[in-house]
Design a protein that fits this description.
This protein is α/β, with parallel strands linked by helices and about 210 residues long. Helices cover about 45% and strands about 15% of the residues. The chain folds into two domains: about 140 residues, HAD superfamily/HAD-like (Rossmann fold); about 55 residues, no CATH class. It has eleven helices and six strands. It has a six-stranded parallel beta sheet, with helices on both faces.
């Protein structure tokens, strides 16, 4: 029986379109071209930083983030807010909690992501980021922490994410029930791969309450 549901952030809860388009503007490249390069990263199993390299070889993302913050301290820049939340998130979280399940958010995110998510006042039991844990997916220690904060054994936890490599497969290896949501470039492409057979595939978070109750 599933007792806790833990969620990834980017393209699971947050639509990252505006973030990537702001990056395209920052780089001075067409938005469509940059989004296409990110899709290529998903198809070729390259990290998203490869898209920056395509347009600006040797580009230092961390350094640029610092410069951007100095130039536009009040802007969203590479961050997100409530306008980026997928519309099925809030009602699905509430339905899961109404069903008696623990709902936790835990993904590979910088410290400010937790602040942004907390500002949304989502119906969740807890929010965590890889930055505060000092470990990122797909490392097994990340999923050990997931079990600790969810207060359940791995077999009682469903982990929901949009990627096979970072979310589904390591969660399955940790003994959790992996759920792949088919949205975002990684989600759609990874759902077509043979390894996706290890996961339950959904097209909306609204499917989860009935699915996990069963």
């Amino acid at each position: 029986m599933i007792k806790a549901v833990v969620f990834d952030v980017g393209e699971t809860l947050i639509d990252e379109t505006r973030i990537w388009l702001r990056w395209a503007d920052r780089l001075g490249v067409p938005g469509f071209a940059f989004l296409g390069a990110l899709g290529g990263c998903a198809a070729l199993d390259q990290p998203h930083t490869y898209a920056f390299e395509l347009f600006r070889p040797g580009f230092d993302v961390e350094s640029e983030v610092g410069k951007w913050a100095a130039e536009d301290p009040d802007g969203l820049r590479e961050n997100f807010d409530g306008d980026d939340l997928y519309p099925d998130v809030r009602p699905s979280f509430q339905a899961l909690r109404d069903a008696g399940l623990t709902v936790v958010v835990a993904g590979n995110q910088p410290p400010q992501a937790r602040t942004a998510l907390e500002a949304m006042r989502l119906p969740v039991d807890a929010i965590f980021t890889s930055a505060e844990w000092g470990v990122e997916k797909p490392h097994p220690d990340f999923f050990t922490k997931v079990a600790e904060v969810a207060g359940a054994v791995p077999g009682e936890i469903a982990y929901v994410g949009d990627r096979l490599d970072n979310d589904v497969l390591p969660a399955a290896d940790a003994g959790m029930r992996p759920i792949l949501i088919r949205r975002g470039p990684w989600g759609y492409l990874h759902a077509e791969r043979p390894a996706a057979a290890r996961a339950t595939i959904v097209d909306s978070l609204a499917e989860l309450p009935a699915l996990l109750a069963a």
